[in-house]
Specification:
Elements lengths: L3 E4 L4 H14 L4 E5 L6 H4 L3 E3 L5 H10 L4 E4 L5 H6 L1 H22 L2 E3 L2 E2 L10 E3 L10 H20 L2 E3 L1 E3 L1 E3 L12 H11 L2 E4 L7 E5 H13 L11 E2 L3 E3 L1 H9 L6 E4 L3 H9 L3 E2 L2 H7 L7 H14 L1
Parallel strand pairs: 1-2, 1-4, 2-3, 4-5, 5-8, 6-9, 7-16, 9-13, 10-12, 11-15
Antiparallel strand pairs: 12-14
Helix pairs in contact: 3-5, 5-6, 7-9, 7-12
The structure holds 2-amino-3-ketobutyric acid (AKB).
2-amino-3-ketobutyric acid binds next to loops.
């Protein structure tokens, strides 16, 4: 990766990833794009272009002008928003992806896009969910993610594009909030613990989902993109996870720092239904074996860091 184009650079992942990539690869070598333009460091601190990913011509033009050799395509609607606006999700998630793959194909770029635990469905084994298993998601987001994995494989097989991807679990970060996801509770709970000392969860007690702290997620993408292609048996997309947790597990961990913290529930049937259609705990052994994936943060270490950083904020 020498000159990188990012889409969705102002989103939850992009806001941190752009700055990290600029640190590693050089500020001028990371071109951030997003449909919005703000006063944030992503926009003001290096190359930035406004881009709606459904505009394939503009994406190609930006990539050509900046002479990029890597496309990191992050722009997408998350699961709960996609369920509320399925047609819009199809147009953005699939239209944006095919434009990004076409750009990578024409300019001979390396390519990364995240898939998700949302690619799995109710027929998928719930625990130690294997890398290769039945998918059959029942959400629009999941349909987009499975189609995206297959499309990225197709561009690799038919056109030789060096496509790589991971199935992200819920990502937890103190920098930029997620928006419209099913796993967002696991971020909100920390903000509310600091602000109000209590949280009402829209995800029910005992509902387990995989999660990962943002620094581990960003390192995973870099490690995968820098991995020797000869070692990759899978490409789109690797299971990755750091922990499988339910709301009460996060609450117990927060109480070690804020003993008066309380958790109650007001379950949202839509997001609960999505969560129940996803695995409890996926198996990341293919990522470990093929490119050395590892996560530094477990629930205890992540909670201590989240609370410390949010207090400073
Ligand atoms: C969501 O909840 O939609 C995302 C995801 C797991 O892909 N965080």
């Amino acid at each position: 990766m020498k000159k990188i184009l990012l889409t969705g650079a102002l989103g939850q992942i992009g806001s941190e990833f752009t700055l990290k990539l600029r640190e590693i690869y050089g500020t001028d070598n990371v071109v951030a794009t997003d449909i919005r333009e703000t006063e944030s460091e992503v926009v003001t601190g290096g190359p930035f272009e406004k881009l709606d990913v459904t505009d394939g011509d503009k994406m190609m033009d930006i990539a050509k002008r900046h002479n990029v050799d890597t496309v990191i395509h992050l722009a997408a609607l998350l699961s709960a928003t996609a369920e509320a606006k399925p047609l819009l999700a199809w147009n953005i998630n699939m239209g944006g992806l095919v434009n990004a793959l076409e750009t990578a194909k024409e300019l001979d770029c390396k390519f990364f896009t995240p898939s998700s635990i949302g690619a799995f469905g109710p027929l998928t084994p719930k625990n130690e969910t294997p890398q290769d298993t039945i998918m059959r998601p029942t959400t629009m987001y999941g349909v987009n993610k499975v189609s995206g994995e297959l499309l990225a494989d197709y561009y690799h097989q038919k056109s030789g594009v060096d496509t790589r991807g991971v199935r992200f679990p819920g990502l937890i970060s103190y920098v930029a909030p997620p928006g419209g996801g099913t796993t967002d509770y696991a971020v909100e709970i920390y903000y509310e613990a600091i602000k109000n000392g209590k949280y009402t969860s829209y995800i029910g007690e005992g509902t387990y989902m995989d999660m990962m702290y943002m620094p581990d997620a960003l390192n995973a993408v870099i490690d995968l993109m820098e991995a020797d292609p000869a070692k990759l048996k899978h490409r789109n997309a690797f299971n990755v996870t750091a922990m499988s947790i339910a709301p009460e597990d996060v609450a117990k961990e927060i109480q070690k720092h804020i003993p008066s913290f309380t958790l109650d529930y007001n379950v949202d049937p839509v997001r609960q239904g999505i969560a129940e259609s996803w695995p409890n705990a996926i198996d990341a052994s293919a990522a470990k074996e093929e490119w050395g994936f590892k996560a530094e943060y477990d629930l205890a270490k992540m909670t201590a860091d989240m609370l410390e950083k949010l207090k400073e904020k």
